[in-house]
Amino acid sequence: MSEFRMPSLGADMEAGTLVEWSVQPGDRVKRGDIIAAVETEKGIIEIEVFEDGVIDQLLVQPGKQVPVGTVLAMMHAAGEPLAPAAATMEAAVAQQTAATPPVPPAERPAVEVTQARPPVATPEQRVRVSPLARRLAAELGVDLQRVHGTGPHGAIERADVERAAAAPSAAATAPAPAVAKPDTAALQMGMRRAIAAAMARSKREIPHYYLETRIDMSQALRWLEAENQKRSIRERLLPAVVLLKAVARALGEVPELNGYWIEDRHQPQEAIHIGFAIALRQGGLIAPALHHVDLKSMDELMEAMRDLIMRARAGRLRSSEMTDATITVTNLGDLGVETVYGVIYPPQVALIGFGRIMEQPWAEQGMLGIRPVLTATLAADHRATDGRRGAQFLDALNRVLQRVETL
Amino acid sequence: MTETQIQETIFHVLGQIAPEADLSALPADADIREALSIDSFDHLNVLIGLHEALGVEIPESDYGQLTTLTQMIGYLAARVT
C-alpha cells in the first residue's frame, strides 16, 4: 500500500490544483503512466506515477487546490493483496487531515480555493478537454462547463468551443461565472511569481561564476547543411539540436556540471536531462527537460524537441519534465543576442547559454578570415565546481563542435 | 492557384503557429520572424506547413528567400502547380 502525493514541480511550487484524474480506482498503472493533470503557476502539468501498481482510491476531487505533499490517491503494488483497505484508508485520510489544513468540501465556492491565483477554467466534474480547446476557451472566455463535447468519450474539442463561443444566448442568459474570464493577465502574474521565486533563490544562494568562449561554427554548419540537403523538410535538423548533442557529449568529459547542489552537498547525476528554455508566447519562460540527450540520435532529439515545444506551448508538460532537468541550456540567438549570461535554475549547478551564430572576423594561423561564430557561455555554481573544470567543459564543447559528424 | 489563394494559405499556416497574431495588420514587406516573434523552430514549422499545404519543395538554401509575406507569395506562386 502506498500513497501518491501532490509532487513538487519546481523549486518554487507550494500548491497545485487537481484538474482531472485519468485513472479510476481499480486501474492498473505502470511507472511513468500519466494518472492526473495538475494546474500550477507554470501551466497544466500531466502527473506521472512513480511505481507499478493498482489505484485503490482517489482522495482529492478535481478542482481542488492542495499543498505539495498532500496524499492524492492510495495505491498498492500489483502483487500485494488488498490489505484491510477501509481502515488503512481512513487512517491515511485522518492523518492527512491532521497534517494539512482541512480541505473545504467540493460545494464550497471555487473563489475561496482559487483566491490569489489564476482562475482555473476547469470544471468540478471530470470533463475531458483537448489542450487546444482549453487554450481557445481561455482566449474566448468560454466556460468549459457549458460546452457540449462531441469528441471521443464526450471530450471537448476545438470545434465545440468555437460553437459555444458563437452561440450568443448562453452567454447572454447565464451570468458570467468567475472562472470563465479569459485571464491571461493572472496567468502571466502567476508565471512571473514562479520565475521570481526561483531566480531570487538562485541569486541569493548560488555563487555564480561565468566563463565565455567563441566557437568557430564553420564545420558544424557545413555538416548540418549537407545533412539537411539529404532530408525532406519535415526531417531537417536545426542548429539547436546539434548544440544540445554537443553539450551532452562535453558533459561526458566534465560530469560535475551535470547535477544538483542539495543540502550542502554536490550531487552529480549520471543521466543527462537537459532543461531547454522555451519562451511562451503569452509571456514567461519554461525549461522542461529533454530526457537522456546523450542517448538520443539527432533525429530522435529533433522529434523530442518538437514534441516538447508543442506541449509546452499548449500547456501539457509532464511532471518528470518539470523536475528532472540536470542542467539547463538557453538559446537566445533567435533574438539577435550575441552573449547570454544565465541565471542557474536551482538546485542545478550550471547553465549553458548560446547567442546568435554570426559572421565575425576570425584570426587563425596568422590569417584573418570571416567565420560563423557562436559565443557559448557557462554560468556555474562555484560551490560545486571551480573555473578550471568550467573552462575544460567549454573547451570540450568547442572540440566536439569541430567534429559534429561524430555526434 | 491565384496569389490571393496563396496568401490565404500562408495566413492559415501562420495562424496555426502564432494564433494571437493580427495577420491583417502584417506589413507585406516586414520580416515575419520579427513581426510575429517567430523563433527558428516555429519558422521551420511555418515552412513545413506551407510545403504540406501547397506541395512546394523548399530547400534549406532557399529559406532566405521566404522572409517577408511578399517574398513568400512570389516564391510559392512561381513553384506551385
Q: From the helix content, strand content and strand pairing of chain B, which structural class follows?
A: mainly alpha
Largest sheet of chain B: none
- CATH superfamily of the largest domain in chain A, by name, is Chloramphenicol acetyltransferase-like domain
Termini gap of chain A = 45 Å
Shape of chain B: globular
Instruction: Note the gap between the termini of chain B.
Output: 8 Å
Radius of gyration of chain A: 24 Å
Helical element count of chain B?
4
Helix content of chain A: 25-40%
Report the β-strand fraction of chain A as a percent range: 15-25%
The chain-level mean pLDDT of chain B equals 89
User: Any idea of the CATH topology of the largest domain in chain A?
Assistant: Chloramphenicol Acetyltransferase
Calculate Rg of chain B over CA atoms. 11 Å
Largest interchain contact = A-B, 18 and 17 residues
Structural domains of chain B: how many: 1
How many structural units, i.e. domains of chain A? 3
Structural features:
heterodimer, A: 407 residues, alpha+beta, Dihydrolipoamide Transferase, B: 81 residues, mainly alpha, Non-ribosomal Peptide Synthetase Peptidyl Carrier Protein, Chain A, 4 helices, 0% strand
